[in-house]
Amino acid sequence: MTTPSWHADPLNWGTGPRIFEAFLEPTCPYSVRAFNKLDELLSQAGEDKITVKIRLQSQPWHMYSGVLVRCIIAASTLEDGKQTAKKVMAAIAAHREEFEFERHAGGPNMDVTPNQIIERLEAYSGVKLKEAFAIPDLDREIKWHCKYARQNGIHVSPTFMIDGLVQPDMSSGDEVGSWVKKALGS
């Protein structure tokens, strides 16, 4: 078995013993809301008390989900790894509707190719993605995210897990402070 010439940087922040996992689909409005709260969660909880892990939850009703998830993982193989991936996720979040279909089945993106989506994302993020997107076995990492979600019974985004347990009562609409209390048990 040959060692791959690339490495996908895990999308983990913080070093704390409590593990907060967020399963996110990049164009889902609720996942975007959750994504935009993760830095504040880390700040309020303390990087030494919590580790925040983003798990990518591609969903077929978000029509370009697979392309965008691959872009994020591709970005994690580039210089600055997870920070570059986070920059790409932030660009998708900031321009979410430009990467989505109207009512999941129509609108201007019906005539957009995957290459045009990648180019659009490169323009918004400032990250050159095409070469990394084309890594032949990048799907190995994409499949890991998918299998991990499936083995944990994750179906919707966002879904949250704390220390390996799904938290069905947590929502992207919750205040960050309630996430902190739930994660740290205080």
Structural commentary:
- The chain has helices spanning 29-35, 38-45, 65-76, 81-94, 114-125, 130-133, 139-151, 176-184; strands at 12-13, 18-24, 50-56, 159-162, 165-166.
- With 186 residues, it is of the alpha+beta class.
- It has a 5-stranded mixed β-sheet with strand order 1-3-2-4-5, sandwiched between helices.
- The radius of gyration is 16 Å and the shape is globular.
Would you summarize the structure shown here?
By secondary structure, the protein is of the alpha+beta class. The protein is built from 8 helices and 5 strands. The longest helix has 14 residues.
SSE blueprint and pairings:
Blueprint: E1 12-13, E2 18-24, H1 29-35, H2 38-45, E3 50-56, H3 65-76, H4 81-94, H5 114-125, H6 130-133, H7 139-151, E4 159-162, E5 165-166, H8 176-184
Parallel strand pairs: 2-3
Antiparallel strand pairs: 1-3, 2-4, 4-5
Protein name: Thioredoxin domain-containing protein
Organism: Rhizobium sophorae
Pfam family, one: Thioredoxin_4
Strand order of the largest sheet: 1-3-2-4-5
Mean pLDDT: 95
**Class by SSE composition:** alpha+beta
Query: Ranges with pLDDT <50 over ≥5 residues?
Result: none
Query: What is the CATH architecture assignment?
Result: 3-Layer(aba) Sandwich
Q: Give the domain tally.
A: 1
Cα distance spanning the termini: 47 Å
Cα radius of gyration in angstroms: 16 Å
Number of separate helices:
8
Write down the CATH topology.
Glutaredoxin
Query: Considering DSSP H and I runs of 4 or more, what fraction of the residues is helical?
Result: 40-55%
Q: What's the β-strand tally?
A: 5
How large a portion of the residues is in β-strands, by DSSP E?
A: 5-15%
